Amino acid sequence: MSSSDETGTLGKAIHLLDLIASAQDALRFSDLLKLTGQPKGSLHRQLRHLVVEGLVDLSPDGAYQPGLRLLKFASRAWARNTARKLAEPHMKQLHDVTGETVHFGVLREAEIVYLDKLESRQAVRMHSQVGNASPVYCTGIGKAAISCLTEDRLADLVQQVRFHRYTASTIADAAALKNALGLIRQRGYAEDLEEHQAGICCVAASIVVPSQNFIGGISVTAPVFRAGPLEREKWVAPVRRAASLIADDMACGLSPVHQDR
């Protein structure tokens, strides 16, 4: 088998894992057949291999779900993530100052992947979870992160976005997103005003470390009844300071010289 064939097989297997892990409901063989467009024989072999390796579980009723081995991989990746470790003390300080939920995320294509989350002292139901991804165009960290992109890279990213209205406040097209990003660049921070989840607001700042090709951000999130304009204004300075300190620590802590010690 050629290296290109091996790469193609691996890519198909990863695509299968992504479909199974991302599905809200467990998928059956017929569902995966439609989603992948693969021949039945090839799909069956790949699924069998994934089940044998523990990456996918096959339930008695014929539904495929993420396997426990994926959980082990995720746990190890999270525990060993250097960026998360460097951000952690600044997240805790921001959490102490605000008392609200703090998120730390990284830009991946047209989504923000949450690397860490510190819950509010007061329980609030949110969609976000560590490891989950959210759209860039309707989240505070997402908008803060892409506001730092070059025009060419931003244009490429916007072409990947499929605008969906999660709430009445969600940005619905590229023109509205461009206007929002202009304001974010002027102010130096971003807000999510019930754009991704009704009743939830946040203030976010970008974290950019060019030497590490890292673009992401940090945010403070709370329900709208605790996050009025005056309260959000109080969060701006500590959020921006946390973002700056994390960027500084990442620039040093992830440098080759530091890692070789």
TrEMBL record:
PANTHER family (alphabetical): HELIX-TURN-HELIX TRANSCRIPTIONAL REGULATOR, ICLR FAMILY, HTH-TYPE TRANSCRIPTIONAL REPRESSOR ALLR
Keywords for this protein: DNA-binding, Transcription, Transcription regulation
Residue ranges constituting the HTH iclR-type domain according to the UniProt record: 7-68
Protein name (Swiss-Prot/TrEMBL): IclR family transcriptional regulator
Keyword Plastid: no
Residues of the IclR-ED domain: 69-252
Signal peptide: none
InterPro entries: GAF-like_dom_sf (IPR029016), HTH_MetabolicPath_Reg (IPR050707), Tscrpt_reg_IclR_C (IPR014757), Tscrpt_reg_IclR_N (IPR005471), WH-like_DNA-bd_sf (IPR036388), WH_DNA-bd_sf (IPR036390)
SMART domains on file: HTH_ICLR
